[in-house]
Amino acid sequence: MGPEFLLKKQNPDGGWAYLQGGSWTEPSVYATLALLAAGEARAARRGIDWLIATERPGGGWASRPGVGESSWVTALAALVPEERLGRDAHRRAIAWLLSTRGEDTTFLYTLRLRLLGRSPSTDYVHPGWPWTKGAAAWVGPTSAAVLALDRESKLHPDPKVSERVQAGRQFLLAHTCAAGGWNHGAIAAWGENMAPYPETTGMALLALRGVRAPQIDRSLATGQKFLATASADAQNWLRLGLSAHNCLPANYQPPGGIPYRTVPEVALNCLAAQGGLA
Amino acid sequence: MSRSLTRRQWMAGAGALTIAGCASRKPAAETAEVSIVRALAYDQRLYDTVCRMLSDQRLNVRGRNVVLKPNLVEFEPGTSINTHPLLVHAAYEAFFALGAASVRIAEGPGHRRNTLDLADAAGYFRIVPKFEEVFTDLNVDDVSRVRLVNPVSRIEKLYLPNTALGADLFVSMPKMKTHHWAVATLSMKNLFGVVPGGLYGWPKNMLHWAGIDQSIADLRTVFPRQFALVDGIVGMQGNGPIQGTPKEAGVLVAGRDMAAVDATCCRIMGIDANKVAYLRLAAADGGQIDERFIRQTGESIASVATPFNVLPYFRGYRLGAG
Q1: What tens digit of pLDDT does each residue of A216-227 get?
Q2: Does residue A140 belong to the interface with chain B, where contact is any CB pair within 8 Å?
Q3: Measured between alpha carbons, how far is A199 from A205 in angstroms, rounded to an integer?
Q4: Partner of B232 for a Cys bridge, out of A45, A247, B176, B299, CB 3.0 to 4.6 A?
Q5: Architecture label for domain B30-317
Q6: Residues of chain A positioned with their CB less than 8 A from the CB of B180
Q7: For position A106, what pLDDT does the model report?
């Protein structure tokens, strides 16, 4: 299943649902990027037009139109090449990302912890990104934001952008599971280590491209073991993440028989096959 | 586009229903009826058992749209994390047998994004024929805005999935588990799964920042046409809802008042329901948690009670702990 599925699933407004229904930002970005990579310029243009039309007034994107708050998907929109999205819209996306951090790393929150006699742990030192403003930072949105800002930093070097990329990567390293790999961002619960997930392990590895650390070595081994997972989502992100570290086995093909059901699953499969997301 | 509806508009749109009373902010709790039935295994006998439980509850679902909301959390095979698919399928068949116009299974897991893979790993594809056709991923369903009436959490409005909001009867089908933050996770805590991850993320951390107990209590008020059927055949004790150990309790617990059902489950689990914060909040809002005003049918609590281990932090919540 490939671009033809994405063409068939494109909504009349130019965006995509996850599976069916109204258009959401996340599947629309992935599908647009996949169609751009596949040379389906006309459908991709409609996707980009949908993104341009759904930018929120204050900058940033909501998870879907009509929801009155920008969210983590702004990082995904920033992955669309700026010459296609528009330089101003792209700048506003980057500005939104720079202004956003997990609530658990804000000055007021850490001050409150200190006043209560509790020292912020390493969890609170490196600001990552939340799914929605006003909540804590997690692995998924932090990985997406690091990807977007890293690319911005290479195109338009800026110390403020580089600093957030570094902090985001430190956040990811600090949230590596004991056995290697990542879950949504909880390392342990009541003293018991939590297990990593294949999909978030792939995402974090992609965001940590070019970084050397013992946590990454452990996580690459974990990611390679996860390649046996019969899940499209897992396969997509692992291929992207392991490729970023040149650790995907040569000529790797996902196991047969895995269903690719949703727009993100199909779009990311196309992107993984065509060389990457960012 | 998302439509903006108040909870009252949803209720009005659904017409005059006989299924459950309105759960708006109200202090007076009525007597609730809760069924407790022994069920020792996940086998074919469940189909008859669930049918009898629902009949005993005198649910009028003829011509109605029913949504079953199990608890799907993690992939781990051989654990007791997820609601067993055989129980969900038994309820699915039973509601059709009672005349429901449609029955959908719907869930929005809080940690894992690949919901269908999770359902597959939990056995749903194997047990429920044409599972994909009857299932809705609540994390990415179309949504409508709901304004909460006098919320006790910091949440004033939520975007919630249309499949859940449009149900004539919303059936929460949790696993009977201890929980490392909320003491116990039952039919009310299971409502976290209706909050769409597509908007609020994985995990749905906004609910934690708004107050876990308060958010649980508020979500209960969003679904006035509610019913609960708890999978206590094999539950989880200790460091739930994921890392605990299986606990064979051998019961199903059901009723129209989620607070009453959860309070009864707590008593079966050896937990003092009156100390569970979200149950106290529900009791202040029309939910019945007072044992004197919960009419038990089927087995008595005493005959099926089996203490669940709790984390040391929650030892004070044990019945008789003082």
Answers
A1: 999 999 999 999
A2: yes
A3: 10
A4: B176
A5: 3-Layer(aba) Sandwich (3.40)
A6: 189-190
A7: 79
